[in-house]
Write a structure and sequence with these properties.
It is a single chain. The mean pLDDT is about 80. The protein has 4 helices and 5 strands; from the N terminus they run αβββαβααβ. It is globular. The chain has one domain: 2-Layer Sandwich (Nucleotidyltransferase, domain 5). The chain has a 5-stranded mixed sheet, with helices on one face. It has about 140 residues and is of the alpha/beta class.
Length: about 140
């Protein structure tokens, strides 16, 4: 109840709407020596104001780091791609050698795994990431919604 009182104090709308289909999701710990990066993008409309971010967790679930950025006006798929690119850049800055990326976009996971069919908007930044992240072993999985 305390959480709801705090939310109401700040004037946040607590009406979320009807849940169409509940989905049970279980977060899996990464293997020892690996860091898990959960990423997601968010857009309010199509296209509209957008943001993306991610969180880095170790093999015991401990917080290692996080990132987020405002992307101005974008489409949903663009935010998901930027999330992966920024996660790769942060992983490289942290000196990671084993990173497990997890996102809710099947298309982004397929493109990342195949390393082909990257949209022209991301081509340069994508190739730069692949080049300097070449020493990082990435595992990519899709969270089904």
């Amino acid at each position: 109840m305390l959480d709801f009182n705090v939310i109401k104090f700040f004037g946040i709308n607590t009406h979320i709407g009807k849940v169409l289909r509940p989905l049970h999701v279980r977060w899996e710990f990464p293997s020892p020596g690996w860091v898990k990066i959960n990423i997601d993008g968010a857009v309010k409309g199509y296209p509209s104001l957008a943001t993306c971010g991610g969180i880095f967790c170790g093999s015991m679930g401990e917080f290692i780091g996080a990132f987020s950025t405002y992307l101005e006006v974008q489409a949903a798929l663009v935010t998901e791609f930027y999330g992966v690119i920024l996660a790769m850049e942060e992983a490289q800055k942290m000196g990671l050698t084993n990173a497990w990326l997890e996102c809710d976009s099947a298309l982004v996971c397929v493109v990342f795994t195949a390393r082909t069919n990257v949209s022209w908007m991301f081509w340069n930044q994508w190739n730069i990431c692949l080049n300097y992240c070449g020493k990082i072993r990435f595992r990519v999985t899709h969270i089904f919604r």
